[in-house]
Amino acid sequence: QVQLVESGGGLVQAGGSLRLSCAASGLSFIRNDMGWFRQAPGKEREFVATIRWSSSSTAYADSVKGRFTIARDNAKNMVYLQMNSLKPADTAVYYCAAAGRGGAIFKKQVSDYAYWGQGTQVTVSS
What we know:
By secondary structure, the chain is an all-beta fold. It contains no helices and eleven strands. The protein has strands at residues 3-7, 10-13, 18-25, 32-39, 46-51, 58-60, 68-73, 78-83, 92-100, 115-116, 120-125. The relative contact order is 0.31.
């Protein structure tokens, strides 16, 4: 079955950096656009970043643009989220998600994605 397993979360001070990883299995990775979402307590899950299957195109939420970078390695079935200049507002559970190639070019909606990981906690202290 499809599995997405996130890792790399943790506790970091404001201004610090973290790199999240997501290992995918059970699916044809190169046939899937990939995304990162996050959910803070009491809030809805929100889009963070997405990358096309070919790695040629990416899109980001305005709140993370210029600080976060999404990347993928199709040979290793991995997707990454490099997070720099972290802020307390970035505190959330971060989820990796997979979607097919069809539909929107940049998939920013929860409903665009068919598969989800279990999430990894990121906590940024002030």
